[in-house]
Amino acid sequence: MKRAASPNGRPLSPPPMKRKIESTTTSKAVASFFKPPSQKEPERLMWRIVHQSLVVGLYRDPSQPRRELTQPVRIAAFDLDDALIKPKLGGSRFVRNASSHAWWDAVVPGRLKELHNGGYLIVIFTNQGSISLKDNAKTLQKDSLSLKNFKDQLTYFMRQLDIPVSVYAATGNDHYRKPRIGMWEELKDEFDLEGDGAIDMDNSFYIGDAAGREKTDKRQKDHATSDRDLAANIGIKFQTPEELFLGLETEPYAHPFEPKQFLESALSSPRGNIPFTKQNKQELVIFCGSPGAGKSSFYWKVLKGQGYERVNQDILKTRDKCIKAARQLLEGGSSVVVDNTNRDKEARAHWVQLARDLSIPIRCILFTASARLCEHNDAVRAHNSSMNPESRMILPPIAFRSFAQAYVQPSLEEGFEDITTVHFDFEGTDAERKIWSKYWVSKFST
């Protein structure tokens, strides 16, 4: 039954209140949605993918002519996370959407506009390993969720800034990833800045938080040195966000591994490796040393010409296969080099036993290169085909960390006839020396 109305005709109770819904859609966006395509405002942030690895974005007003750059061009380059933007209070730096981050400091947008108005080309170089380009490999019309979120976030901040900005985001561990200079090279190609004197190197700079600084009462320890190293590799000034935006003083800094200083030290104080020569008609030689210590190069340079056959686990995949191959070669009368890490006594004992079984003398060559030197060598090799004759892929940091943790120095008591120590000495052309002298590792594992 219906409830009777009040005598004066008014309802007995008030009608339910309608829920007010806050909309995040602007009237401008609604109007644009209903406009025909010919009347819609062109997108200001345009994107492209380079070599299925580098995400490139260019923000500018398409209705305005592209500003002609007067050479030499001054470049103001920035890292993104914790340099221009930061997670909102209580948020995560890994969450990517328009509302998850804020400007690193309130002065950032104004300072960027000042630089733009002063004639600087504003650029962002950022490592974004969490971005997946998997879907883009299948179709250029579908972005992965991580890529879409990154684009949405950058669009949000660039619209607030509303000045021309170029964005370069390295998604893989290749020549684009900082501190390697692939993004810088792409920038030069994009703006036709390849010629000598096209860039004002003295007045260009790079700002980033990955500066290798130690922990303070106001800040955590920097996670890496990649921003500082990128600037050094390019040859431009480096500053932290605190120095540029807040005017703080430069903090003291010592790099964990200086390639140039290593080469200079080696030239001024050569350690003089003892030549290794064959002592027996037939013998088994095993290497002991970290990945990247120069073991394979030493084989090709010193031992191959002396008639040694090489057994290598990177090629054969398992130790059992290596032992089987070495046995066959030794039983056939050859001398053999085992080009593996052989990091501890247990690993070396297999080869000592094989030599005893066949009554063949066994010798050991110990490679002394430090973990950081080895990581550097590995990165140089992997990213420079002219210095990588075996086309080796870059190793994960755990490869160096696990070797260092398990390493036990070999001794004659294990059964070796002798142990020869080999220190790493760089050998190559002047061009290769210049390549090796740059920074290649974004974060050392030890």
TrEMBL record:
Keywords: Kinase, Transferase. Coiled coil: none annotated. Pfam families: AAA_33, PNK3P. GO terms for molecular function: kinase activity. Residues 1-28 are annotated as: Disordered. The keyword Secreted does not apply. The keyword Transferase applies. This is DNA kinase/phosphatase Pnk1.
